[in-house]
Amino acid sequence: MTWKQIAAEKKSHQLDSVPKEWLSADLPPSEALSVIDFPGESHALSTLDVEITESSVASLLSNLASSKWSAVQVTTSFYKRAIVAQELVSFFLIGKADSPNFTDFRALDEHLQKTGQVVGALHGLPISLKDQISIKGIESTMGYVSWVGQFAEKNSVLVDILESLGAVPFVKTNICQTLMWTETFNHVFGRTTNPYNRSLTSGGSSGGEGALVALKGSPLGVGSDIGGSVRIPAGFCGVYGLRPSYNRIPYAGCVNSLEGEDSILSVLGPLSNTLDGIKTFFKAVLSKEPWQMDPMVIRKRWSEEEYRLIDHGNGEKLCFAIMWDNGVVVPHPPVRRGLEITKKALLAAGHQVIDWKPYKHAEIWKNFNRSRVSAPAIPNFENAIWNAASAEDFKVSTAPTGEPVIASMGLLQDELLSRLSPIGISAFELWKLHKIKRDLRQEYLKHWEETVSQTGTGRPVDAIISPMAPYTAPPHGMNKTAQYTMWCNLLDYPAMIIPVTKVDQALDVKQPRQQFYNVDDRENYERYDPATHENAPVSIQIVGRTMEEEAVIAMSEIVDKALRGAKSKL
Amino acid sequence: MTWKQIAAEKKSHQLDSVPKEWLSADLPPSEALSVIDFPGESHALSTLDVEITESSVASLLSNLASSKWSAVQVTTSFYKRAIVAQELVSFFLIGKADSPNFTDFRALDEHLQKTGQVVGALHGLPISLKDQISIKGIESTMGYVSWVGQFAEKNSVLVDILESLGAVPFVKTNICQTLMWTETFNHVFGRTTNPYNRSLTSGGSSGGEGALVALKGSPLGVGSDIGGSVRIPAGFCGVYGLRPSYNRIPYAGCVNSLEGEDSILSVLGPLSNTLDGIKTFFKAVLSKEPWQMDPMVIRKRWSEEEYRLIDHGNGEKLCFAIMWDNGVVVPHPPVRRGLEITKKALLAAGHQVIDWKPYKHAEIWKNFNRSRVSAPAIPNFENAIWNAASAEDFKVSTAPTGEPVIASMGLLQDELLSRLSPIGISAFELWKLHKIKRDLRQEYLKHWEETVSQTGTGRPVDAIISPMAPYTAPPHGMNKTAQYTMWCNLLDYPAMIIPVTKVDQALDVKQPRQQFYNVDDRENYERYDPATHENAPVSIQIVGRTMEEEAVIAMSEIVDKALRGAKSKL
Q1: Which UniProt keywords are given for this protein, alphabetically ordered (chains A, B) (predicted)?
Q2: Model ipTM?
Q3: A47: buried, middle or exposed (CB in 10 Å: 19+, 13-18, 0-12)?
């Protein structure tokens, strides 16, 4: 069979095992752009299904614990809604869906009935997982045709932990081929679109998660982030998403791209419709001491003290710094408006807000990935950590079937394929890049510490508030740069995505601009048209210090509360 | 000038600035092997000098805090004793020694007098530092002739922290050229010998620290460890030494070899004559929140709970496992006797002791460094993490003067120079090695967890007790393998060296042996002659889980107490 035949066969089986009565008879027409409200009104869902799927994680857990709702009921409701989501945006459906007998979940109900006790902190909570997070017996295609038919022999560590907490990993979600793009498209399952506007990308590489969680087909999803792959889909799809520091959430047992690329580590992180979902996931996973199961995980328990912001004046008067732009590419008007709304809300809530002066963001980006912009100024243009051997890595996974590496997203592939030597760089060159990276981290830390003179709190800036991209979700194939997320990966800063508003053509008009940082900045400006981005979510990113997840969650709650407070006053 | 002239000139200036009255008139003859007791009897030291330099860290700190001894007095006493040590074993003397005006230290006394408060937790404590740990204005030669004259422009982060704690970084100590050997010899400052038997090596690469601390020329030293470089000198010289996990003690601002080799990280660790010195250092450095100064340091405070062994049944009945040999090279008789003494002492103290089954130690060693033994079984013989680009790295530092890379220690250099391609391996090959490394860590963790079925405590083995080398200090040039320390670096296990006894020709007789694991094992057996190792310290290594320094310190105290208890009953 050719790779096209393998892919076509796989895709044609995709919905075969789904109960036919759960398919929607009343799907919106394909030209309907926003489908975000459709599932709540779909005839495929009962009133109870809608009530359950529109509950917060906290309320789901409490109703499950009190036996108001059974685990089987909750999982069935989310599974039904996920099927609707699949029909709308093709988030990709696999997993228990292939054999939906729900045996495992019934055991949860029996346990609760018999003992009166929940199995664990996530009792009965359905959780969706990015394709690469292995579930025993379930396929991980990773978007590669040659991986079709690779069934996991055992659970990843995270799945073992989630199950021991009583959670229900129930579907797997779509990614991009190679995992190294910021959109979601591959030759096996095709493209995942944005539920707020299907002509726009859902982001990537965890775009299946972003789209599914936004449509409330899952209360909590887990993606991975090596350059923004949790945050970009979260931001583009208007949900919350956390990129934790390296090695806090166990990654062992997942399949991956660029295996052994240890310079900038991919991390797993949660997406949810509420911050309580993010916190609940993070705290619950750490409670299982994952360092006893994955040697890479840092032995650091959830710190209630750090969550109470002992390192940030107990959260009483925080000083945030807004990075309006990164000195490389200026964000589009709706992104700026999102920051302005946030600033106003925080000031109204009694916090302080100053400007963040970006520091060497072009160099950071360049160390990571080759970039047109930074090239003239920096020698060894060809060398960057991701490019060190990625062409060789991609070839290993595409060669068996002859499937081509998709070259359509601009970010990495176009240049990589045409310009990179297929044998990559030497280990010695890679060591030099590590040294540059370490110096950048050291300098950025110093830069941050020195803000103590500007805050008036006696502390350096508590958190940076940054765009998560220089635009809201763009049309498919146009997500050109991940530089607004990548810096956190290189510096290893935990970062939370918070949705703020949506693109409004009346408010987000294009302003004349004459001066540009560089050619990318000019092109980004020229591409902007508010009509194109109609209805796209506008999000911000709360950035903290390395290993400070507890504080980032707490500060995000403060920002979120300020934003909701401001909204309720409108 | 040729490299020989530069080296000769530097060396001839080495003792020039030392006060002549502090030199010893009564040095032992060069054929005297043990000089360990000489400084205490030297006419160069007063009775007070001897009393001070033979005090524990705890008692120094308490007498400094009470003003019984001034910081100037304490530093002067150690400085005088360090000069004697230099004359005996050439530990290498540089630093404040070049301009011994002690101004900085006087300020400590004035502060205490004026405020009644100590400056910090290490008030007035002299600390010796391995050459690579930068002190502003002081040279770091790193054992390379081409580095002579490179004066540090600023302190390393650790030195800033130590000074803020009131400590007195007072001398720098000798290393090996390249930092990547386990003996201490370079073209600039020559060789550091073992104070217990000067025909034997002091170990390396922190051999200057091992020798100086053993001679009590410093109460606390700081070395670095990427394959055993703290532990080997500590073990060979009979002092305590800790290899902490990656990124707990700040490394930023130090100079280094193999910069950017981030696969297996070098770490800084303390050496001292008492465990209280180790603990005091560790706790004090963490109290300054080093993650605010070095972005690599993990945000994890000293945990009093973990020190009280909450993860180990509160330390009431521990289960240790002894690794008698690693399945690759069987240790010499004195090493085995050290383990037997420890076992007996622990059983007498009410703890449990079982055997540790080594797991893939040849593969671990091979992933790190090319090895004859493991080569036949494993493909890509040439590839190993250290060899990935080390030849190129060494060349950068030796090329400017034409100084040859020293090729005399067998461990790395002999093979490296003759067999390694000067361009190393590709980044893609390095990624593959990372994957092997990660799998080895995952498997070793599982192996450890599975011991829960053998301990009877309900927990897996609490700590492994291992040799730190398959021999006690060998003659110069004969330290052939670091495999008994390297595994902890690859697996990132914290490990403490504890001295147990000394080689005794009557007890440590050579036993006949017919079967060998491999050719290295046979050669190691054949080389043993108890007379050669006369008086050499015998040490053990207490190995814990990643990031569990607090528990390793606490368990080491338990082992040490058991050993001292056993000794006092003899």
Answers
A1: Hydrolase
A2: 0.94
A3: exposed
